[in-house]
Amino acid sequence: MPRTVALKSGLNNSNRDQAELAKFSQLAHRWWDTESEFKPLHDLNPHRLAWIEAHAPLSGQRVLDVGCGGGILSESMARQGAHVTGIDLAEKPLGVARLHAIEAEIDVTYRCLAVEDLAAEQPQQFDRVTCMEMLEHVPDPASVIQACATLVKPGGMVFFSTLNRNLKSYLMAILGAEYLLRLLPRGTHDYGRFIKPSELARWARQSQLDVVHIEGVHYHPVTRHYHLGPGADVNYLMACRLSPC
Ligand code: SAH
Q: How far, CA to CA in Å, does 94 sit from each of 29, 123, 160?
């Protein structure tokens, strides 16, 4: 039986920031341009996909991608043989995602829906849930994490990625990425919404998710390449498993 949780279903307007959603909608037409503002996501994607696969093979699995945007991760997981549903609250990126999937002849279901509402609709229906580069854009990340935990099957895995909050992450992710290297448009990130791994882990545990692994995401400004490895000072990934009972 689905566990009973205090979800914010019915209050789905509360956990969104319209200004954040508008920012992503404005840029949506460039989502699949690998030299655009979304270059970092395109460059990072093969690494995070391989990391997810290493924890939990995707082929044949029912996967939910929360905050899927234009579908970079969703499509790549579908190519690995997963049955992917992508949800987001910004309509334009979802429109781009739908068109791109048709052109690429990839089967992904995209829905404009709050994760809290999907959790009320389909508890424990997904083998894996991914929620990448999204938590730092929502007013109440703990509510998103709780909903992800409700959506995954017992023993299933949830994968998060976000930005740590400290001086180094401010220098690298805001000053470096937005002002010096101009990898991202100014104002993409709000330092106050960055999330320490200890905070993310605490919210995960409160939702019955066991933290399995934390991995740092590193960007080399000279080679302009990403790699994964120890050190969660700036960007990081967190793999969690829902307790089996
Ligand atoms: N996860 C994707 C896109 C990251 S960009 C990837 O890593 O490739 C952040 C995405 O989060 C945007 O598409 C934005 O519209 C979405 N988002 C922001 N607030 C949201 C919310 N409250 N609910 C669902 N999606 C949200």
A: 11, 23, 20
State the closest ligand 1 atom to the C-alpha of 73, by its place in the atom list counted from 1: 8
Minimum-distance ligand 1 atom for the alpha carbon of 65: 1
Residue type, 233: D
Atom 10 in ligand 1: residue holding the nearest Cα: 67
Class of domain 13-242: alpha beta
Phi and psi torsions of 198, nearest 5°: -65, -35
User: Percent helix, strand and coil across the chain, each rounded to 5?
Assistant: 40, 25, 35
Assign 26 to helix, strand or coil.
helix
Q: What mean pLDDT comes out for the span 35-62?
A: 97
Query: What confidence tens digit (pLDDT) does each residue in 189-201 have?
Result: 999 999 999 999 9
State how far the alpha carbon of 232 is from the alpha carbons of 46, 48, 166, 241, in Å: 19, 14, 11, 19
Cβ neighbours, 10 Å, residue 245: 7
Model's pTM, two decimal places?
0.94
Distance CA 179, CA 98 (A): 32
Give the pLDDT confidence score for residue 12 in this predicted structure.
54
Whether the predicted pLDDT of 66 surpasses 60: yes
Please report, for the chain, the start and end positions of each structural domain, with discontinuous segments joined by +. Answer: 13-242
Q: How far apart are CA 6 and CA 140, in angstroms?
A: 14
Mean predicted confidence (pLDDT) in 196-209 = 98
Mean pLDDT of 144-160: 98
